[in-house]
Amino acid sequence: MKKIVKLSMIALVASLAVGCATNGDIENLQSQIDGLKTSVAQASSDAAAAQSAANDASAKAAAAEAAANRAAQYAQDTNSKLDNMFKRSMMK
Prior knowledge:
The protein is mainly α.
């Protein structure tokens, strides 16, 4: 019985010594976590900048579309006027 208890104690001490993380391991993990936090913050900042640029581009595209629609309307009006002038000149 004493032999089993001694072997159990030795096995317990050995497993605790081998299974526990060292301070170096914990510090290494903490530095990796800090690095990831920095990367996440940078990615978030980049995403916000990209969203802002996309919104600006969308606004400019809408303005360009409105200008193109006005130009098309002016061209159509001008063509209509020219057709009317041509018809009048042919009637004379």
